[in-house]
Amino acid sequence: MKLNEIADRPGARKSRMRLGMGVGSGKGKTAGRGVKGQKARRGVAINGFEGGQMPIYMRLPKRGFTKPNASTFSWINIGRIDAAVKSGKLDAKKPIDSEALVAAGLLRRSKDGVRLLAKGEIKSKVELVVYGASKAAVEAVEKAGGKVTVTKPAAEAAAE
How far apart are CA 125 and CA 154, in angstroms? Predict the structure, then answer.
């Protein structure tokens, strides 16, 4: 095979329909836009407009609130940490914190902190330093002989 012989398979690319090119083209005269009116013109964007009736997004009640400065956390399951320790990406002898997890490629970034969750099992004895952890995750790590240090401030932990 040569570079000049490379081509798409027949039917892989469909040619563009040329609109308004005579009645015989199948898309002549109104070019598939129906007849006259606002929607037959260019530059019309009327999504959500209901013909003067109050739109549904305005009729329905709004509830809730999104906190503008809310903390967002990265999370990781104990099963992934165990797999990383067994594969040699993480060193079980050193404390494993958010920087170690990012360096090992288990997390893309640590955001405002890392939460430890309990999906999977852990058999490696590891020392974890995380912002937060579920009770089940802490129990599983301690059962395997490890230790979890939670760095969340006490006032936030009491509020939760």
Answer: 26
Q: What's the one-letter identity of residue 130?
A: V
Amino acid type, 147: K
DSSP codes of every residue in 118-158: --S---S--EEEESEE-HHHHHHHHHTT-EEEE-S-HHHHH
| Structural domains of the chain ordered from first start | 74-159 (3.100.10.10)
Q: Per residue of the chain (160 residues), what is the pLDDT tens digit?
A: 899 999 999 999 999 999 989 988 889 999 988 888 888 888 887 888 888 899 999 999 999 999 999 999 999 999 999 999 999 999 989 999 999 999 999 999 989 999 999 999 999 899 999 999 999 999 999 999 999 999 988 656 666 6
pTM: predicted TM-score of the whole model, two decimal places: 0.58
Distance CA 97, CA 104 (A): 11
Q: Comparing C-alpha atoms, which of 23, 25, 126, 22 is closest to residue 76?
A: 126
